[in-house]
Amino acid sequence: MxxxxxxxxxxxxxxxxxxxxxSRNGRDDPCARCGRNIPRLAARxxxxxxxxxxxxxxxxxxxxxxxxxxxxxxxxxxxxxxLPICSxxxxxxxxxxxxxxxxxxxxxxxxxxxxxxxxxxxHGLLGGEPSNLALIGLVDALCASDRPExxxxxxxxxxxxxxxxxxxxxxxxxxxxxxxxIPGKPTEHLRALLQHHGLLPQRDPYLPRFEQWIDRKLDGLxxxxxxxxxxxxxxxxxxxxxxxxxxGAATRGPVHSAKQEITETVKFLVWLHETYERTATTCxxxxxxxxxxxxxxxxxxxxxxxxxxxxxxxxxxVTIQHRAAKTSRSLSQDQRLAWIHELLTGTSESLxxxxxxxxxxxxxxxxxxxVSFPTSIIDxxxxxxxxxxxxxPTDVPDxxxxxxxxxxxxxxxxxxxxxxxxxxxxxxxxxxxxxxPNTVMDRLRxxxxxxxxxxxxxxxxxxxxxxxxxxxxxxxxxxxxxxxHADKAAEPWARYAGRSLxxx
Length: 504
Prior knowledge:
Oligomer: single chain
CATH topology of the largest domain: hpI Integrase, Chain A
Largest sheet: 3 strands, antiparallel
Number of domains: 4
Structural class: mainly alpha
Strand order of the largest sheet: 7-8-9
Strand content: 5-15%
Radius of gyration: 29 Å
CATH superfamily of the largest domain: Intergrase catalytic core
């Protein structure tokens, strides 16, 4: 078996710009710590000259100095035991204390630490120290981030600066309605921060955008098309999604399917109007059959519209049967094992996406569900690691357990204003949220993974090793789905006896 899966398209997983081994003038000018030539001098300390990377690491290392046993900044070089030491013990002739907050930290501007410099910049953009409680909390949250230098870079954007100025002078109220007037990524980032820190009430992120999308979709349509679509979109889909949002249920999936059904209905009714000058009321079965037969399978999404049209007696003549897929995508077991080997041992993708893909390939977990996993489903004890995907925990074998430990110890997107207390296994760049499913799906598709095929093969192999009812309980599937995959595998019941669920 080829250890590399077919279709692999690796990405560069090296973070940041590569270090250079040549100085600008071509002379040997090595850093005292990393030994590489220094393109730009950052500091000259008793041990020698430091490059920017080693200097940055030095001024962000804190802990107990092994020499004087004080809790301090530890910019000094490692001692005989390989542990960094404080500036006093290292004889570094520099006072790292910020002249304003007196915290020992690397100076970012004059003798100010990065947090104090950031606070000055934010107050400048907001027109002075804010009196609005939400803005006060926002400034405090941003300045308390684990990496304030990232916020300093973020607020250089002209769009971010304009948004902060408008919030500071009251042009934009610090409310959901006020932020809705300035759509864009900077606005959504600030909204997420304000919600995460309790400065704005929580609001479903998909419902308001769906309402705006409906208005845009209906704009410019002829009345013969707009009226039935508007009734379908608002009285069926929007009312249903509002009820889900009010109950605290997830709305991403329902919004996605609603958009597809509304879009396909608009396409059909526009085609019907332009081709035959007929409407939803005068549409015939022949019209629908022609439309379905001459286009992609997504056209079958108009079925919901005609089911409701029959109930409301708008059109009682048209009937569309439920469409069942004729084929089911699946990887071969050799392909699945090749992907597992690559994701466990290769460097073709960054760690979070490798962990997500392994949950798909080992435990047949849909990526829509994977991204919403909290860290609490992982139980790592002296007896080994387990993961709770259904009604009871399932063992996690090595080396995948080691991969999960490494990921949990270095989850991304936790060093800015969101803080480090995210409950999600896969935190988003938006505070308090997990990664969007499409982010993970697109990355794994670009890598070459057949997502549906991988999931079908994974559950198909698992139901060969264990009774479908136990697989369903362990993985969070319904018994009907597990038995359906068992039927496809055509496995005799005799092979189920006495076996237990185990990861491949």
